[in-house]
Design goal:
Blueprint (H helix, E strand, L loop, with lengths): L1 H15 L46 H15 L1 H4 L15 H4 L7 H5 L4 E3 L4 E3 L1 H12 L10 H14 L21 H6 L8 H7 L25 H11 L1 H4 L6 E3 L2 E4 L17 H11 L10 H12 L13 H9 L8 E2 L2 E2 L14
Antiparallel strand pairs: 1-2, 3-4, 5-6
Helix pairs in contact: 1-2, 2-7, 6-7, 10-13, 12-13
């Protein structure tokens, strides 16, 4: 417990600044599939102005569930050091899910947990929450996903489940007491909260929740496409003016004591060509709502789109789905959402990309 508390303190400091092995797959037989397809992006202009407030640490449940929540939080904000066998770059989960997964419009965990199980086009099947987490390890973390049911996934799911208490009543504020939180089994935690048979659901519905929750602040809300197409040259200017101070002139981030405190945006230690953030539109949505740090929505839509284009024109680790044919990989998985497989500065992006995590599943 002393180690856990020490890690928690360290994590607080840090937070401020598939081939998946299917060992066993818990059944989804009781899940109503028709209710699962809510993974669509939010429509333009529909982002909410008020959002659920995450629980305070005073609302941490006691016992084993509370310990899982604390470990999950620690993994989330300090992924590089606590889960090195699963992380193949210089990123932590918190880099894409800001404020320890609590911030609206930054893919908050409380919304993600209540959105799964869900169908994903990326792998063309219904994903449990743990499968979504595995995808983060494989692509965003350029790593090796924990196997299904791994304790790391259980702890991360417990942390997300606890944050999801904030959605009670579909309103603002987490009005609950820690003693009232239902304690799911590990298998139930790993599935996600969008299930009629989930232990959380009766209390959630009794408190005014919905089986089709609105979840304002979910994901990275879309922004209008700018008047002009995204432009790498203009984006480089935006980057030099707004991003260099934290991420460096070469995009490699900043390290303290050999540990990244500001994430690399391209290069060998960044997310790979299969990550959601390598799509220009997704990066533009994230940047618009969250960057520069502490100044959300300060860039114009055009600036967000341009700088996202510039980031996407820099090379990074290979797409794990690459089978030796850049054109085929682009055609099958990328479409027109990224510069992968196109010529930039005289070379085809992807032809000489950095390697994936050495332990990546094959």
């Amino acid at each position: 417990m002393r180690i856990l508390i020490t890690n928690l303190i360290i994590s607080f400091i840090v937070a401020s600044a598939s081939s998946v092995i299917a060992a066993e797959k818990p059944p989804l037989k009781n899940t109503k599939v028709a209710k699962l397809a809510i993974q669509d992006e939010l429509p333009v202009g529909k982002s909410a102005t008020e959002f659920p407030a995450a629980p305070s640490w005073q609302q941490l449940p006691s016992g084993e569930l509370g310990e899982k929540v604390l470990r999950g939080y620690s993994y989330f904000v300090n992924s590089q050091q606590l889960a090195p066998k699963y992380v193949g770059n210089g990123l932590n989960c918190v880099n894409c899910h800001m404020d320890a997964g609590k911030k609206e419009n930054a893919a908050p965990l409380w919304a993600a947990y209540m959105s799964y199980p869900a169908y994903r086009k990326k792998n063309d099947k219904i994903n449990a929450f743990q499968e979504r987490l595995q995808g983060c390890f494989l692509y965003s973390m350029n790593g090796t996903p924990p196997i299904m049911g791994d304790d790391t996934l259980v702890d991360l799911s417990a942390y997300a489940y606890w944050l999801a208490q904030a959605t009670l009543g579909n309103g603002v504020g987490a009005k609950f007491t820690a003693a009232d939180i239902p304690v799911p089994t590990d298998a139930e935690l790993l599935q996600g909260g969008k299930r009629d048979d989930f232990p959380f659901m009766p209390a959630y519905l009794a408190a005014g929740g919905s089986t089709t929750p609105v979840l304002p602040g979910r994901g990275y809300p879309k922004i209008d496409e700018p008047t002009l197409p995204g432009d790498i040259t203009r984006g480089k200017v935006v980057y030099q003016q707004q991003c260099v101070a934290c991420h460096g002139s070469n995009g490699q981030g900043q390290q303290v004591n050999q540990r990244y405190v500001f994430p690399p945006l391209w290069g060998p230690d960044s997310y790979n060509w299969g990550a959601g953030m390598q799509r220009v539109n997704t990066a533009a949505y994230f940047i618009k709502h969250n960057m520069p740090l502490g100044m959300p929505n300060s860039l114009s839509d055009q600036e967000a789109w341009d700088v996202a284009s510039y980031l996407d024109s820099r090379d990074r680790p290979q797409d794990p789905r690459y089978q030796g044919d850049i054109k085929q990989t682009r055609r099958q998985f990328h479409g027109n959402t990224s510069y992968y497989g196109t010529e930039v500065d005289g070379k085809i992006l992807g032809n000489a990309s950095y390697p994936n995590h050495p332990n990546k599943g094959q």
